[in-house]
Design a protein that fits this description.
globular; about 375 residues; Rossmann fold; single chain; alpha/beta; DNA polymerase, domain 1; three-stranded antiparallel sheet
């Protein structure tokens, strides 16, 4: 058994977790020695009680390592650890860093330089518009956009990065065989198909629950150089992520919102207590300009995106634009008429918006701009 395989097995065990595994590694030296160790020796490690000692001693009763490795290989999923060259360096600075990551897609060296966009699952038209603009600008400038693939702001953040032909990383609060929410599977497929990666620390068949999402949030917070909260209520998982980012020494930004809307209460409170107010992606990059990122290969973020000649559109953009006119059309009508997958239509509509050829109205209705 290799170190990597032993870490995968340890990661599959219930009630163990990365912090306790690191304590065990300090005592035993390598992950193979932990598995099957006498209960008396593991119980001597701080934080390891009798129940956990029994689980570690009889680990094969709790984890089918061979099946996990075979299933990952069949699905084209890589499992990486901190020993791998593509491991995101910022995670090494976390005291509770994950032991490993399951990766669907590809991670590149440039993905170490990521900016997170997070917010509420229940969004407003204002929140979605802000997220589209910021995500598009940040990805357009060459940074990787990281978020959690959740409904609402997360989904829009990933779509904005894809519309900019940029890179995005989605961090799940479940195993890759239990992708949640299920309606975002087409979006996840598009991300993994050459536009970034969908990652998780959880075993393949781990379902989402109330504990897995906060665990997911810490990876988002620890991976990024800066975290942007776009829209959230006074009590929100996005606020937990923002607090974690602050604890990890990451810069926290927030988009202000109307003071009479509960959907903006969380962001406004973040600003009141010290988060940096932003209204544009350029402001994020100005504050993070110390990052050792190579000069962007795309047009300068500070230059306005030029209006686009419809003759220069690709086939997907032409197909979607052909369904628009001066009358409001729902996204479902556009998907049906264009004959394209829902995720493709969603990203293409956003690209047309950024090119000033289409406009979204409240309620996911779209019109062609004149």
């Amino acid at each position: 058994m290799t170190d990597r395989e032993a870490l995968i097995a340890l990661n599959m065990l219930p009630k163990v977790g990365p912090v306790r595994v690191r304590r065990l590694l300090e005592r035993f030296g390598n992950p193979q020695s932990i598995l099957g160790a006498p209960e008396s020796k593991t119980r001597a490690v701080n934080g390891v009680g009798p129940e956990m000692a029994r689980i570690l001693h009889r680990w094969e009763d709790h984890a089918d390592l061979a099946a996990e490795l075979a299933s990952a290989a069949d699905r084209g999923i890589n499992i990486i650890t901190a020993a791998d060259a593509v491991w995101p360096d910022p995670l090494c600075e976390m005291p509770d860093a994950p032991l490993l990551l399951y990766v669907w897609g590809d991670l590149l060296e440039r993905d170490r330089h990521a900016i997170a966009l997070v917010g509420s699952r229940r969004t407003t038209h204002y929140g979605r518009d802000c997220t589209k603009k910021l995500s598009f600008q940040i990805a357009h400038a060459g940074f990787t956009v990281i978020s959690g693939l959740a409904r609402g702001i997360d989904t829009t953040a990933h779509e904005g990065a894809l519309a900019a032909d940029g890179r995005t990383v989605a961090v799940l609060g479940s195993g890759l065989a239990q992708l949640y929410p299920p309606e975002n599977l087409p979006l996840a497929e598009k991300i993994a198909d050459g536009h970034g990666a969908v990652v998780t620390e959880f075993p393949l068949h781990q379902p989402p629950d109330k504990q897995t999402f906060p665990q997911r949030n810490r990876i988002v917070a620890g991976w990024c150089a800066g975290l942007v909260v776009v829209e959230c209520a006074a009590r929100s998982g996005a606020l937990i992520t923002a607090n974690l980012a602050g604890e990890y020494g990451r810069q926290v930004f927030a988009v202000p919102g109307p003071i009479d809307r509960p959907s903006s209460a969380g962001c406004n409170e973040l600003i009141r207590t010290g988060a940096t107010l932003i209204t544009d992606g350029a402001q994020v990059l100005e504050d993070l300009d110390h990052l050792p990122l190579a000069p962007p290969t795309r047009p300068d973020l500070y230059s306005p995106i030029p209006e686009t000649d419809p003759a220069s559109l690709n086939s997907e953009e032409e197909a979607v634009l052909a369904q628009l006119d001066g009358q409001e059309r729902s996204i479902d009508e556009i998907i049906t008429a264009a004959g394209l997958p829902a995720s493709t239509v969603s990203v293409t509509l956003l690209r047309l918006e950024m090119k000033r050829l289409a406009k979204q109205l409240p309620g996911s209705y779209f019109v062609k701009t004149t």
